[in-house]
């Protein structure tokens, strides 16, 4: 079965939805999402979205903060572009119905997070992502030019490879013609042909045992682009959020927003010591890579499973008013944050690398754009500054829509693409094998490719991953398409990219820290 659309958007977070809303003025849009349209990484963002919105702030300060956090790996031209265009994209979100918190005088109530020199984080209490997601979903649902295919899984993007041509990573002129998409309800596979295809599939957090990402974050877009021979970069830079709630057995890990530390919460070790100043002069508001490694080090020193985040010295009513989601979630687990310290532990949170794109969101494959966390724009460098991701997604969605509207009229459908070749049989033990392989993969990545790495750990990880890869590919070839087998393949592809790029990085920089290449900066350890 074949379908045709002007714009095919794979993913339904802020990047995909903003693009769809803007592109719908220029053609028919189909959004493919493997769960519900409102189930995206964006929904789980607590802290907020960064933009220069106050008279005490300016673009140069935001640029400088971003460059410092990125540890010398940011593309400064990209940083300046995103920072300068951010206020206009905030206006777009407000126009779409997002209601950010304001002060009594009508100005935005701006918070401050780690690595920021000024208060510039717009928020909606501590559930900003949910507010953004809800507003965008409502806008999309009301647009007659946008069709949403929920419970549909993109298996592969279509290129000349599907016309029988040999494609390699060195090939020039690779083009994307759409995607094979599985209907998860009836297990049929649709061939969706498109003039323009957009990957907005979010993060990779589920390659690790502990992650703040929802279960849908399995690196699908990055894996599909990699198999299609797009350029992938900087996958070694995986950001671990320093403070997720220590709550063994729960997935995803509940995020304790960095804004809470910006509000005055203090990290303490088992002895009750405010330990962060031993690692960085910025204390609990140091950039995330430094804080995560510091917590990891303190846990090893004390032999415990977590450290404390102390809010008990702060105004109780202020905590309840500004962080209602955290207050109620912790209370349900027997923790009153106004009186009890919160047990926290780092968790895989954000991928700073991904599909390499230019300043219009174009990948190295023609007609294929990548937006949001699955892309690598150059904004984040080796470490993302807090709350820069949502604004990056909004800025690049706008730029991609503006660019693609100028070329859409010159692009045709590739009618020679064949329909999906159904093959394979169902095995009763299939789900058991997939579940076990997924757990093995997450153990490998967590134990060997986590916050602190070494050459030996990476070597062992690669050897063990190779076994899983061969087993999974053999299972995939003889099985009927399912969401779980496709996700496992994607997780393995992404894990390989992380390990290989980490192995090739012969230095400790940003989020990649190896005991074989220690840094000598006084703020490092």
Q: Biggest β-sheet, characterized?
A: 7 strands, mixed
Global outline: globular
Which fold name is given in CATH as the topology of the largest domain? FAD/NAD(P)-binding domain
- The total of beta strands comes to 16
Full CATH superfamily name of the largest domain: FAD/NAD(P)-binding domain
Q: Radius of gyration in whole Å, from Cα?
A: 22 Å
The N- and C-terminal alpha carbons lie at a distance of 57 Å
The number of helical segments is: 13
Report the CATH architecture of the largest domain: 3-Layer(bba) Sandwich
Structural class: alpha/beta
**Helix content, binned percent:** 25-40%
Please identify the top-level CATH class of the largest domain: Alpha Beta
| H-E order | EHEEHHEHEEEEHEEHEHEHHEEEEHHHH
Which regions contain 5 or more consecutive residues with pLDDT less than 50? none
Instruction: State which percent range the strand residues make up.
Output: 15-25%
Notes on the structure:
The structure is a single chain. The protein has 525 residues and is α/β, with parallel strands linked by helices. The chain folds into three domains: 2-48 and 125-236 and 352-410, FAD/NAD(P)-binding domain (3-Layer(bba) Sandwich), CATH 3.50.50; 238-349, Alpha-Beta Complex (Flavocytochrome C3, Chain A, domain 1), CATH 3.90.700; 430-479 and 482-504, Fumarate reductase/succinate dehydrogenase flavoprotein-like, C-terminal domain (Methane Monooxygenase Hydroxylase, Chain G, domain 1, Up-down Bundle), CATH 1.20.58.100. Helices cover 34% and strands 15% of the residues. The chain is built from 13 helices and 16 strands. The chain has helices at 14-23, 59-69, 76-95, 128-141, 220-227, 259-262, 288-302, 316-322, 324-332, 388-405, 430-448, 455-477, 483-504, and strands at residues 2-10, 29-32, 49-50, 121-122, 146-149, 152-158, 178-183, 188-199, 232-233, 238-245, 266-268, 307-310, 342-351, 354-356, 368-370, 375-376. The strands form four sheets. Strands 1, 2, 5, 6, 7, 8 and 15 form a seven-stranded mixed β-sheet that branches. Helix 3 (76-95) crosses helix 10. The chain is globular. The model has no long low-confidence stretch (mean pLDDT 94).
């Amino acid at each position: 079965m074949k379908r045709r659309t002007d714009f095919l958007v794979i993913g339904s977070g802020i990047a995909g939805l903003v693009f769809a809303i803007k592109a719908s003025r220029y053609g028919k849009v189909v959004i493919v999402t493997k769960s519900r349209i409102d189930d995206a990484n964006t929904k789980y963002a607590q802290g907020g979205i960064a933009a220069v919105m106050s008279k005490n702030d300016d673009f140069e300060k935001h640029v400088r903060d971003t460059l410092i956090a990125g540890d010398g790996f940011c593309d400064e031209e990209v940083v300046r572009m995103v920072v300068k265009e951010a206020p206009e994209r905030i206006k777009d979100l407000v126009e779409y119905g997002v209601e950010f918190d304001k002060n009594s005088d009508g100005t935005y109530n701006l918070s401050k997070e780690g690595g920021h020199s000024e208060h510039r984080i717009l928020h909606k209490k501590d559930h900003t992502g949910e507010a953004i997601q809800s507003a965008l979903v409502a806008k999309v649902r009301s647009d007659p030019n946008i069709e949403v295919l929920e419970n549909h899984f993109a298996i592969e993007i279509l290129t000349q490879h599907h016309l029988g041509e040999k494609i390699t990573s060195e090939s020039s002129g690779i083009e994307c013609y759409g995607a094979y998409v599985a209907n998860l309800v009836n297990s049929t596979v649709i061939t969706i042909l498109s003039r323009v295809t957009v990957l907005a599939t979010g993060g990779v957090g589920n390659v690790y045992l502990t992650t703040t990402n929802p279960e849908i974050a399995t690196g699908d877009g990055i894996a599909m682009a990699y198999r299609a021979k797009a350029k992938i970069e900087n996958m070694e830079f995986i950001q671990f959020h320093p403070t997720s709630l220590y709550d063994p057995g729960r997935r995803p890990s509940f995020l304790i927003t960095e804004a809470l530390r910006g509000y005055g919460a203090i990290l303490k070790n088992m002895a009750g010591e405010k330990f962060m100043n031993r690692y960085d002069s910025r204390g609990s508001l140091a950039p995330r890579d430094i804080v995560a490694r510091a917590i990891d080090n303190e846990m090893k020193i004390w032999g415990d499973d977590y450290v404390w985040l102390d809010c008990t010295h702060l105004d109780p009513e202020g905590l309840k008013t500004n962080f209602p989601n955290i207050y109620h979630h912790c209370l349900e687990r027997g923790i009153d944050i106004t009186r009890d310290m919160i047990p926290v532990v780092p968790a895989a949170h954000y991928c700073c690398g991904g599909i390499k794109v230019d300043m219009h969101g174009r990948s190295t494959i023609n007609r294929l754009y990548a937006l949001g966390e699955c892309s690598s724009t150059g904004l984040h460098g080796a470490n993302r500054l807090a709350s820069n991701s949502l604004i990056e997604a909004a800025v690049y969605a706008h730029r991609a829509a503006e660019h693609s509207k100028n070329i859409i009229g010159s692009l045709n459908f590739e009618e020679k693409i064949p329909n999906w070749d159904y093959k394979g049989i169902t095995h009763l033990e299939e789900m058991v094998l997939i579940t076990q392989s997924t757990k093995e993969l997450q153990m490998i990545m967590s134990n060997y490719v986590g916050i602190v790495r070494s050459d030996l750990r990476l070597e062992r990880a690669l050897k063990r991953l190779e076994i899983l890869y061969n087993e999974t590919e053999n299972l995939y070839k003889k099985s009927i398409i399912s969401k779980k087998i496709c996700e496992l393949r994607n997780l393995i592809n992404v894990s390989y990219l992380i390990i290989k790029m980490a192995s090739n990085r012969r230095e400790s920089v940003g989020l990649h820290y190896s005991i074989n290449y220690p840094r000598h900066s006084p703020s490092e350890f």
